[in-house]
Specification:
- By secondary structure, this protein is of the alpha+beta class.
- Helices cover 27% and strands 25% of the residues.
- It is built from 19 helices and 34 strands.
- Strands 3-7-1-14-11-12-13 form a 7-stranded mixed β-sheet. Strands 9-17-16-15-10 form a 5-stranded mixed β-sheet, with helices on both faces.
- β27 and β28 form a beta hairpin.
- The longest helix is centred in the C-terminal third of the chain and has 28 residues.
- It binds cytidine-5'-diphosphate.
- Cytidine-5'-diphosphate binds next to α14, α15 and α17.
């Protein structure tokens, strides 16, 4: 791995502030097998739940016979939708403002949908009994494409919704249609492209689950849940179940990966909670792998049509994009209410042109719900894939070198802050620097020569390029909200008398290393060693309210809250230091970890001295203690970016291709922990490698999910994954207190789309035009044959 930027931290390694590749503190317990996941939780008297799911994608339910299941020894209860309806719980609201069946009563709308649940004394009995439930169906036409879904004669999927007389889930428009059409009418050239980003599943290592413990004596509901957003989930539970919010405590213990999959509220959570409430005992439900793959939030499934208007000399004049999303049966991912299509209108990318018009339409289909923020901020991966495919086509149609084409059209360094034609204000960027570095690191010119030589030897070597700009850190509360909850986040910092601190956050790490990195922000601001700071997340009773971790928002929002609360405490510390040093506050200077009197470096107090005094020796009129909370509503999103180059070699006889070299230059502003950022990038690139080469989950005409196991849906291991060489440029975010932009497990830098783009581009040089994912050997071979013909 290569990192080109120099990191010269302001703090010592002992303090471990920004720029230190501090080792992940959370790993000790994971490596020793001492993590505490939902399935590790065992409570006295705990019962187990299993779910009976629909084998059909679309069918009317005629009857449900639970008698045989109820008769199984060890079964405590069988829950159906009809039973839940008695508590007004058969349906629930989703985080996108739609409704979703908790247990189906009228129809099943996707294969794997929840119909009934069995509560039993052990998990195997529960599962065996669930299999004995008999459901009689009247089969209906399954709709498995959004195109069919929107045809006039398609059967209505959501006939449960009043006023819903088509299968259209939403339509959203941005940009200026009239001005864009006018530019297209006069353009020298228009390139267009139809492409598809296939459905994929985030498939976290740990599946979803809950232990619901409702105490009938106290009314207290403690829910141990695989939740990326515990506070938002608590509010939804309060609304769904009508429980008083103060009596609901959601504990999100260690999470084994989320990738957007643990953002939606799943029916299993609600049924287990309702059953615990009624039965009065704790209930555990943990999905199997198959259940996770078949029924929980998918990503992508975007059909895109794009057009780019160009001048003969290679200037982009405008963009027109029309896209169609397969949302599945319920619109249940978390989308900001004012941006129903997510952030797809960032599709204008890294380029400067005056006009664009984007239409995004969502359709209901008979598939499990889709659209989660999987390794991106809402729909940003799809958007960056689309724009780079168009840029690639445009460069080749114009006959321009693709790097030159990009340089000519990039938003220039001095144009930031830059207002995009769809209304985003890009905070900062230096796109040429990232592109130049990527080309230099890969040895672009030498590889061009090598390509020629390889061809002479009958080998096929291709080199491909992609750039990207993404938008993360949702968001400014006026523009971004989930169900009306503004997308702020929070940090509470408490410094104890001995100078050790505890930092509590509204976000929830699922593997991103927050326990390590957020302590580094405090260390930077206050000089307290990171190892003296404990980071606590994921317990709604013990952390301040926040919207959660997804869409690469933790660092831009909760990271900013952490920096601000630390700075606020530093100002209080200054008052105490002035008192201890018998000086005026204005005469004090701060350097990491201590205050000293200007001009007299011997008169100083450390932050630890101040912390002790905050509890023992306060100045008159100053409140005791050293703690605070800050809710941060960011003024804008942050815009990480980068450029990737991939060199592939293709076997001309079979179409098999392998990555010879891959260089990724990413810019996420100031890096808190370079090692962790590199890990995040590796994750994103591996996802791109998977999508380009092997990962495909699809549905047959009956709506059967093909690929609901890891033998068919392939997860790349270290064995197949190519080596990545990483480079870095640093363009801080001007509005972020520490200049960081987000990266995320739901990653932005480490762009999966850009990896695929670069592969597709590399293949283009070998005559393989406009290939879509997955770029399998047979398709590459067929495309090469077609090109020869
Ligand atoms: O919201 P999520 O945790 O997925 O994303 P993030 O907070 O943007 O980044 C994931 C991890 O990378 C966290 O541990 C961050 O603190 C770290 N990071 C960093 O070290 N430097 C940055 N500029 C951005 C993120």
């Amino acid at each position: 791995m290569t990192t080109t930027a120099e990191h010269t931290p302001k703090t010592t390694a002992e303090v471990g502030g920004l720029g230190h590749s501090r080792r992940r503190v959370e790993d000790a317990r994971f490596i020793e097998g001492r993590g505490n996941y939902v399935d590790d939780i065992v409570l006295p008297g705990m019962l187990h739940m299993a779910i009976h799911r629909s084998p059909l994608a679309h069918a009317r339910i005629l009857s449900i016979d639970t008698s045989e299941a109820s008769a199984v020894e060890g079964v405590i209860a069988v829950v159906t939708g009809e039973l839940l309806a008695g508590y007004n719980l058969a349906w629930m609201p989703t985080l996108s403002g739609d409704t979703q069946a908790v247990l189906a009563t009228d129809k099943v709308r996707f294969q794997g949908q929840e119909i009934a649940a069995v509560i039993a004394v052990d998990r195997y009995i529960a599962q065996d009994a669930a299999d004995k439930i008999v459901v009689e169906y009247e089969e209906l036409e399954p709709i498995v494409t959004p195109q069919r879904s929107l045809e006039a004669d398609a059967p209505l999927i959501r006939d449960d919704k009043e006023g819903q007389d088509t299968n259209q889930c939403y339509i959203w428009e941005s940009g200026d249609k009239e001005a864009t059409d006018a530019v297209f009418a006069k353009a020298d050239k228009v390139v267009d492209l139809d492409t598809f980003y296939p459905r994929s599943h985030p498939s976290p290592l740990e599946t979803c689950g809950i232990v619901a413990d409702v105490n009938s004596a106290t009314g207290q509901a403690t829910l141990y849940m695989t939740s990326q957003a515990p506070h938002a989930h608590r509010t939804v539970f309060a609304l769904v179940a009508g429980l008083p919010e103060q009596n609901i405590r959601i504990v999100s213990p260690d999470i084994g990966g989320g990738f957007g999959n643990k953002v939606p509220v799943y029916p299993g959570y609600v049924v287990a909670t309702a059953a615990s409430l009624v039965i009065g005992q704790p209930i555990k439900w943990v999905e199997t792998r198959y259940e996770n793959l078949i029924s929980t939030g998918f990503g992508r499934d975007y059909h895109m049509h794009g057009e780019m208007a160009l001048s003969n000399d290679g200037k982009i004049l405008g963009l027109r994009v029309d896209m169609l999303s397969d949302q599945g049966a319920f619109f249940s991912d978390a989308q900001p209410t004012k941006f129903k299509a997510g952030l797809f209108h960032i599709v204008t990318g890294s380029y400067d042109y005056p006009v664009a018009h984007v239409t995004t339409r969502g359709a209901y289909t008979n598939k499990a719900p889709g659209g989660v923020a999987y390794r991106c901020s809402f729909r940003v991966t799809e958007a960056s894939y689309m724009i780079e495919r168009l840029v690639q086509n445009a460069a080749y149609e114009i006959g321009m070198d693709p790097a030159e084409f990009r340089r000519k059209n990039f938003i220039k360094k001095d144009q930031f802050p830059y207002l995009s034609p769809t209304g985003f204000v890009y905070d900062s960027g230096d796109y040429e620097a990232a592109l130049d570095l990527a080309m230099e690191m890969v040895g672009w010119d030498e590889i061009q020569k090598e390509k020629e030589q390889a061809r002479a030897e009958g080998r096929l070597v291709g080199i491909g390029l992609a750039s990207f700009t993404e938008v993360v850190g949702a968001g400014h509360g006026d523009d971004y909200d989930i169900l009306g909850l503004r997308m702020f986040d929070s940090a509470e910092l408490r410094i104890h008398p001995t100078g050790k601190a505890i930092l509590k956050l509204g976000v929830r790490t699922q593997g991103q290393g927050h326990e390590t990195t957020f302590a580094q922000i405090v260390a930077e601001e206050l000089g307290i060693p990171a190892s003296d700071i404990k980071v606590v997340e994921g317990d709604t009773d013990n952390t301040p309210y926040g919207l959660g971790t997804y869409a690469s928002r933790s660092t831009p929002v909760a990271g900013a809250a952490t920096a601000v609360v630390s700075r606020n405490l530093r100002e209080k510390a200054r008052k105490i230091a002035a008192h201890l040093l018998e000086a005026s506050e204005d005469d004090l200077e701060w350097e990491v970890g201590k205050f000293f009197v200007k001009g007299d470096r011997d008169s100083s107090v450390t932050i630890q001295d101040v912390a002790f005094a905050a509890y023992t020796n306060m100045p008159e009129g100053v409140e005791p203690g050293l703690e605070g909370v800050h809710y941060y509503d960011p003024p804008n999103m942050t815009y990480p970016f980068g450029s990737y180059v991939v060199v592939v070699e293709v076997d001309p006889d079979t179409g098999q291709w392998k990555v010879r070299k891959m260089v990724a230059v990413d810019d996420c502003g100031v890096r808190i922990n370079p090692m962790i950022v590199e890990g995040q990038i590796h994750g994103g690139l591996t996802e791109g490698f998977a999508m380009s080469s092997m990962q495909y989950i699809t549905f047959d005409e009956q709506g059967n999910c093909i690929g609901a196991n890891f033998l068919d849906y392939l997860i790349p291991t270290a064995w197949e994954t190519p080596r990545f060489e990483l480079g870095e440029t640093v363009t801080p975010s001007p509005h972020h207190p520490i200049g960081a932009k987000g990266v995320g497990e739901s990653a932005t830098v480490g762009s999966p789309a850009a990896f695929v783009n670069a592969v597709v581009d590399a293949l283009w040089h070998l005559g393989v035009r406009n290939i879509d994912m997955p770029v399998s050997a047979d398709r590459v071979w067929a495309a090469m044959e077609e090109a020869k013909a």
